[in-house]
Design goal:
Two copies of one chain form a homodimer.
Chain A: E1 5-14, E2 34-42, E3 47-54, H1 59-70, H2 78-83, H3 85-93, H4 106-127, H5 131-137, H6 140-144, H7 158-167, H8 172-182, E4 184-188, H9 198-210, E5 215-219, H10 224-238, E6 243-247, H11 254-263, E7 271-273, H12 281-291, E8 297-300, H13 307-315, E9 321-322, H14 331-344, H15 358-374, E10 382-384, E11 397-399, E12 402-404, H16 417-423, H17 429-434
Parallel strand pairs in A: 4-10, 5-6, 6-7, 7-8, 8-9
Antiparallel strand pairs in A: 1-2, 2-3, 4-12, 11-12
Amino acid sequence: MLPKIINVTVKDVRFPTSTEQHGSDAMHTDPDYSTAYVVLHTDSELKGFGFTFTLGKGTEIVVCAVESLSRLVVGKSLEEIVRDFRGFYRLLTSDSQMRWLGPEKGVIHVATAAVLNAVWDLWARAEGKPLWKLLVDMDPEQLVSCIDFRYITDVLTEKEAVDLLLKAQEGRQQREDQMLSEGYPAYTTSCAWLGYSDQQLQQLCADALRGGWTRFKLKVGADLEDDVRRCRLIRQMIGPNNTLMIDANQKWDVDEAVSWVSRLAEFKPLWIEEPTSPDDILGHATISKALAPHGIGVATGEQCHNRVMFKQLLQASALQFVQIDSCRLGSVNENLAVMLMAHKFKVPVCPHSGGVGLCELVQHLILFDYICVSASLNNRMCEYVDHLHEHFTSPVVIKDAHYLPPKDPGYSCEMLDSSVQRYQFPDGEVWLQMNK
Amino acid sequence: MLPKIINVTVKDVRFPTSTEQHGSDAMHTDPDYSTAYVVLHTDSELKGFGFTFTLGKGTEIVVCAVESLSRLVVGKSLEEIVRDFRGFYRLLTSDSQMRWLGPEKGVIHVATAAVLNAVWDLWARAEGKPLWKLLVDMDPEQLVSCIDFRYITDVLTEKEAVDLLLKAQEGRQQREDQMLSEGYPAYTTSCAWLGYSDQQLQQLCADALRGGWTRFKLKVGADLEDDVRRCRLIRQMIGPNNTLMIDANQKWDVDEAVSWVSRLAEFKPLWIEEPTSPDDILGHATISKALAPHGIGVATGEQCHNRVMFKQLLQASALQFVQIDSCRLGSVNENLAVMLMAHKFKVPVCPHSGGVGLCELVQHLILFDYICVSASLNNRMCEYVDHLHEHFTSPVVIKDAHYLPPKDPGYSCEMLDSSVQRYQFPDGEVWLQMNK
């Protein structure tokens, strides 16, 4: 007997990361990593935990949106939800009055992600499995029944999706065993935030090399000469055989992106991430084409707001790396759609992560992607940032620059009660003290 | 001495239009036309009024977002704002923490529109002019200084924009005089909401023909046989020389849109509006191409969330009619950008309107478009819906199916105090009575 959701609570939890420039980039100069943190209370002892990620100010708007969505959730049993998960997804995303506020984008969609993440967490807990294993054990028909194919059937139909999953079943057990022993390859963004000094960058990079890291991402886009110097510095430190990626966080217009990145080509970055507006599919296509001769790919996705946008990025050959996000897309449901489309177009998925809790969540998705969809590690890796994991009840485990598969039941979304209390905005102890 | 903004108030005002199926379409079956209604209070007697349009549920989220944006507005003088309006636009849309919630899309962007609409209203009042006349009297450099060109310079630079405006100056006085005497041509959507019976449709259509209307829009997309019958009915009533348009409100996937609309081609619609997801630029391009041989254009824009999306719709030849919206785009500032891009691509602007208050606002923009940008009425017209005008202090004036230019100072955003009180949600008299 699966539990019934009888109440939804949501809290505004903010970490004052801006005080030390953690997470700083060309567009987000002072982020306070935050969450709208959702708890689904049920008629049993089980709870579901979920959240979406934000940068501080405005989290109160997402909290308000979760509260508005709650009326669609309270009273539903988990059985009723998972029996027609596509229908439940559409209930949240296509309410005939609320959809005007999106549809499926911005505040209302990240709030939907928070709620759905909590539902998936609840389901995995009810089944006593970590989320990735719940997904791995589902048969293709059931997986596909969670996806809303509206607006993507010109690229992927339900039948094609099932066929892709069936075809990838060969070797699945082997890949699961491999993941359990080796883990999934990661790269680090922790060394080179834009607000860090050269000295700090060198120190962190040296530490990371000693820790076995081989793939490094650098923030760029504020000042070209700074970028040249920092790229040279990091390339010298990591040598020619390790991997360098650069990330502009939407700083440029299309033409500027091409000329700026061309100047950094000598440092052989694997990709330029978010060169321009996340909405500019055709712009990304132009940039991709212009940078291909330099051997530089385009990566984007952390602010790509839904599957319809990813569909077009793939159709237009506008990106060479798909960066799914566990908290911006409509939870597992929409991420499944994007992973399957990426597979069809033979574009590797390299998830966006970091922030607070994003590593905890997205590891589940990329494990599933490898075991059940892509069956490849070629040009694939998952972002890792070494921040704020201590606030989670099941924090990520990194070993030799690999994510080890989570073992606890659920989607790893649960935060420590003490952290939620201390960092709640504006009344938690930490904020009261800062605002003294 | 221009006034200084000392306080921002925002109210959730909803009209229970769903009770009579006004506004019903294939995706929005029961809208309660609503606004997040903003008042800028200043240190003088002048106030600025503005709003964004919503469909009922969720308006509280937009109210919350306006409250969050208010901290960026309070304390600013109008002079400081209009001296660098581009900077002020970017202050609201690119706050380094808040932009994560968009950027420039969904709840945060419609809330921005509400605030900026109120600023433009305040400015026009301070100048003692209706907004369209304020715009018409501004010189090209000043107009262009209100536009944020970020992410659109690959299609339109600041210099090009100035040149387009300079080129269109010839005949401007003549066009202004023409508008003052004749008004701007309108079409009606009031006859054929999806929830109306055939009898109601026939009655309203007969009335409209008697009232001088020559252009009619019909909602489609729920049931093909119904659509065939209703299209036949309305075409028979209006005859072969009047104009018919059809509107699916995003009901279809791409392939379905093409096959469905092809079945309605015999009724010679001028355009199919919103055939699929508002995010699907490439999908709209496919549909445009497939329907061109039938002589049917594609119109979209009421849920096109920003100038970057419009830019691509134009680049991809994905639409033949640009439907700007006064409450979804970032107010006048972003609409100026879209009108100029549309002009460059030689695509007519036919604004979205209706709802509550949209007619009041958008008439100003389309008057400016004709007088100062397009200089053409060919294939151009502005939507009109005959609802809820009685709640405004300066309601639209329609004469012989034309919008007559507003004469009162401001952006026509101000609602009657009594209406705001009665319809405020959930505590206004109307809602208290309905929920008894």
